[in-house]
Amino acid sequence: MSNGRDPTACRTTTAPGTDDRFPVPLRGVAVDAETRCLHWHDPPDVVALRFDCCDTYYPCVTCHAETTDHGTERLPSDRLHEPAVLCGVCRQTLTATAYLGCDDTCPHCGAAFNPGCHEHRDRYFAV
Ligand SMILES: [Zn+2]
Ligand SMILES: [Zn+2]
Ligand SMILES: [Zn+2]
């Protein structure tokens, strides 16, 4: 039943495993094929963010807490030019700088991102 292509299928992946549906290391709780998770699952919740502590992408900070046993480390401010955000729709990565300046729209595919994520950006990036 689970061939990995069902866009509605949700998968929970815990450390040290990663979800093989994505081109980058990614894990989380009940993650769907566009990186929505148990905690954030509205249509525009399609970004996953990379945490520096384990160099892995997560749909949200709660997913990190529930699938690992360590605290989060944010991407330091001198490395915001590194890929740090995955668009769950086109599965391209954005740098932190591109994400913070993208006006809540994917620069690759035009998908709308949840504007509320920007209000939490201090959880992810040391900006
Ligand atoms: Zn971590
Ligand atoms: Zn989550
Ligand atoms: Zn995209």
Features:
4-stranded antiparallel beta sheet, binds zinc ion, alpha+beta, 13% helix, 127 residues
Question: Can you walk me through this structure?
Answer:
With 127 residues, the chain is an alpha+beta fold. It has one domain (1-127). It has helices at residues 61-67, 96-100, 116-119; strands at 47-51, 56-58, 83-87, 93-95. Strands 2-1-3-4 form a 4-stranded antiparallel β-sheet. The longest helix has 7 residues, at 61-67. The mean pLDDT is 91. The site of one zinc ion has 7 residues, from loops. One zinc ion is lined by residues 28-29, 37-40, 59-60, 62-63.
Number of domains: 1
Name the bound molecules.
Answer: zinc ion
Shape: globular
Number of helices: 3
Category from helices, strands and their pairing: alpha+beta
Query: Beta fraction of the residues?
Result: 5-15%
Order of strands side by side in the largest beta sheet? 2-1-3-4
Distance between the amino and carboxyl termini = 43 Å
The overall pLDDT, averaged over residues, is 91
Secondary structure elements and their pairing?
Layout: E1 47-51, E2 56-58, H1 61-67, E3 83-87, E4 93-95, H2 96-100, H3 116-119
Antiparallel strand pairs: 1-2, 1-3, 3-4
The chain binds zinc ion (3 copies).
